[in-house]
Amino acid sequence: MTIINLGELCEIFSTIVDPGEQDEYLVEEIQKWRVTNNYTEQEVFEALVVRAKASLKKHDQQPQIYACVLGLFYHYRIGTHSNKKKSFKWYAISACFGNPFGMNQLGWCYSIPFGTDRDYEKAIYWIKESAHLGNSSGACNLAYAYRLGIMIERNNVKSYLWYEYAANAGVLHAQMNMACYHRIGLGTSKDVHEAFKWYRKASKHPKSTRKM
C-alpha cells in the first residue's frame, strides 16, 4: 500500500493559494507533485477522502485545507468522477472551518451555480468573507462585483481598492486592472504615470505574455 504524504500536498496548496492563483494553476501544481512522487490520481484521492473525514472527527488543525483540496478533486475530476454536489459540500465545510480560499470557492458555487441553487446573497457574503480574510482571489472577485454591480451595488472606488489589494499581493490581472483604472481615472484619479508603473509591473510578472 502506497503511503501518501498529504502534508506535502497541504503545504503546496497553502503556498499557492496565497497569491490568488487560478484554480487551474493550483491543479497543475498538484499534478506535478503527484507525478514527481509516482502517485496515481486514485491513490491520492482515496487517501484524501480518508484524511478529510478523519480530520473532522478528530478536530484536526487542518480540516479546512483537506476539505478544500477534496473539493478541488471532485471539481476537476482528479482520481474520481466529477461531482458538483460533493465539490460544493467540501468547499462549504472548508469555508465553515474558516478557510478563505474555500470561502471564495463557495461564493463562486452560489453565483454560477455549481452543485447548489443560485443564491447571490450567499455568494457575495462568502466572497466578502474571503476577501476580508486576505484571499487575493476573493479580493479580485469582490472588485469585479463592485465594478459591474453584480450581486452588490456598483462602487468604482471599492472596486479599485480591492484590485489594489490583490495587485500588491502579486495577482497579474489585478495589476493590469490597476493600470487600466489609473489610465482612465476609474475609482481613482487619472494618472498616466501610475498607469505605466502598473503596466510595467504586470509585464514583469512570471505569467505575463506582454513584456516591456
From TrEMBL:
InterPro entries, per this entry? Sel1-like, Sel1_AlgK, TPR-like_helical_dom_sf
Q: Which Pfam families match?
A: Sel1
User: Which SUPFAM superfamilies is this protein grouped with?
Assistant: HCP-like
Which superkingdom? Eukaryota
Which family is it part of? Belongs to the sel-1 family.
Q: What is this protein called?
A: 9495_t:CDS:1
- Organism of derivation: Ambispora leptoticha
